[in-house]
Amino acid sequence: MKKDCVFVYSDDFQNYKFHDEHPFNQLRVKLTYDLLRTMNALRDEQIVAPRMATDEELALIHDRDYIEAVKAAGQGRLSADIALNYGLGTEDTPIFPNMHEASALLVGSTLTAVDYVLSGKAKHALSLGGGLHHGFRGKASGFCIYNDSAVAIKYIQEKYQLRVLYVDTDAHHGDGVQWSFYDDPDVCTFSIHETGRYLFPGTGNVNERGQGKGYGYSFNIPVDAFTEDESWLDAYRQALREIADFFKPDIIVTQNGADAHYYDPLTHLSVTMKTYREIPKLAHQIAHEYCDGRWIAVGGGGYDIWRVVPRAWALIWLEMTEQSNISGNLPKAWLDKWQALSPVPLPLEWDDPEHLYSPIPRKTEITEKNAQTVEKALYPIRNHRSNIKQSL
Amino acid sequence: MIVEQIMKTDVITLHPNHRIIDAIQLVKQHHIRHIPIVNDENHVIGIITDRDIRDASPSIFQANEYIEDLQKPISTIMKTDVITGHPLDFVEEIAALFYEYRISCLPIVKDEKLVGIITETDLLHTFVQLTGAHQPSSQIEVKVPNLSGMLSKVAAIFSQRNINISSVLVYPDKDEHYKILVFRAQTMNPTGIIADLKNAGYTVLWPNLPGVSS
């Protein structure tokens, strides 16, 4: 039976857990799942279980000795010195029991999403357990062990020979995925994030455009700290439209980190739920305009797991399944169930109130600077286009 | 850091009796802007820059006139008062030299022979590495009183959290009684270290956007 959309989910996503105080908390996937189930927006037949990624699949991106190190670390067999060389056992990515299995399941979840879409069993698929865009070939970084998105893109290339557009709206630069395909003209990466001036990882500058044959296929828009909805969305809409038109992808993979929100404790952007309504909307349109609907969406960052992530991620699914015209109150049953566990009062409605924060003093300058950044990022495409016009 | 560690050793050179047209081709072919001129003993006896070449070339409006001039030897246009450096010079000194003499290239000479070259681009690249901006990290700026021992006190707080520091810069503050310590720290979650710093009484600028506080 053909399902239009699938939601890859398992309670085992919770096994990817560093420790109780760590900001990366997969409870947010469960909160999202529960929100959608409570409101009857996610039916039994739309839910599919993730599979584990095999070692061969992980090795599409990751070094074999790194995979072995992760396995050994998860079984307590890796010395601290060696672990540190692989970025394991740090403040960001502490070692935890069975970390290989937990991480390989997140990769497998995104691969499951890919299989559903590319075998034609679904148009769109959502893998909220994935989106671990900082993982490097041979090193853990920024809460990420294996890079599910990079593995999935390589898998799509090897198995289906498609051209992939990767769109990363996490507040942090999608460095792991960018570097994995930096010299590949068949994968176009586009990341919009808070400038690396202060924020991790520090890369993602406009002038990172790719290298060799891949030059011109990496796009970065670093927006200023304190950027608000209007300016952020303006950058996103202009860039994604023009990049899609330039690259003409066969499939899009979107990474949906929800940490650019004003409430997020790790970043300094000031967007609200307005932005999280719009992100999947445009991605959905692009998927239908260029890719015959083929769209894989994954999760990512998001560290206000109570007030931001469940609403933002539920909106991706609601957009995919064309139920996004929802507003007003969140389901009471969901609020009643989770409020007791939340350290902060849960929001009562889908949308944020006006005046969520006090006005940003340098808004005009920030908006102006972001517009210039967009201009610079898209310059090669726009320049190319006007050259073609002249020669006609 | 000393010059030897960052200089390029495969230097593209010409002899004084090479023609100007040879220099034009070399500059285009290798995307370079400076060519040291050496004699048979590999002694630096002159230097030409892309600007010297441009001065000697016909205007684009008269591109085909006087082209025989480009057959003249380089010795007719090269500068002979060349500022050179030594492999053991400090990179900081070289940077000051570039700034003071408004030059952007320095042939490096040892035993009177040319052994390397440093350009503005090499210096900039070194600077990028000094800032640590090429490795995944967060930037945290701490405003401290301009007193001895502050850096070690602040760095100790990072070390208690087991956070690796990839670079430290010390900037002057507008108020000379203060300094700004700029750390690039290998963590995506600096909230803990920031809380520690604040508890210890320091002013943390994360991010530092004048007129706006987070």
Descriptive overview:
The complex is a heterodimer of chains A (392) and B (214). With 392 residues, chain A is of the alpha/beta class. Chain A has one domain (5-391): 3-Layer(aba) Sandwich (Arginase, Chain A). Chain A is 40% helix and 10% strand. In chain A, strands 2-1-3-8-7-4-5-6 form an eight-stranded parallel sheet, sandwiched between helices. In chain A, strand 7 (251-255), helix 9 (273-290) and strand 8 form a beta-alpha-beta unit. In chain A, helix 5 (99-118) packs across helix 6. The radius of gyration of chain A is 20 Å and the shape is globular. The termini of chain A are far apart. The mean pLDDT of chain A is 96. By secondary structure, chain B is of the alpha+beta class. Chain B contains seven helices and eight strands. Chain B has a four-stranded antiparallel sheet, covered by helices on one side. In chain B, strands 1-2 form a two-stranded antiparallel ribbon. The model of chain B has no long low-confidence stretch (mean pLDDT 90). Chain B has two domains: 3-127, Roll (CBS-domain); 134-205, VC0802-like (2-Layer Sandwich), CATH 3.30.2130.10. Chain A binds chain B through residues 22-23, 90-92, 134, 141-143, 172, 175, 196-203, 224-226, 265-266, 268, 360-362, and chain B through 132-141, 161-164, 184, 186-192, 206-209, 211-212, 214. Chain B: It holds the Pfam family CBS. Chain B: Keywords: CBS domain. Chain B: Residues 7-70, 78-137 form the CBS domain. Chain B: This is Acetoin utilization protein AcuB. Chain B: Residues 139-212 form the ACT domain. Chain A: This is Acetoin utilization protein AcuC.
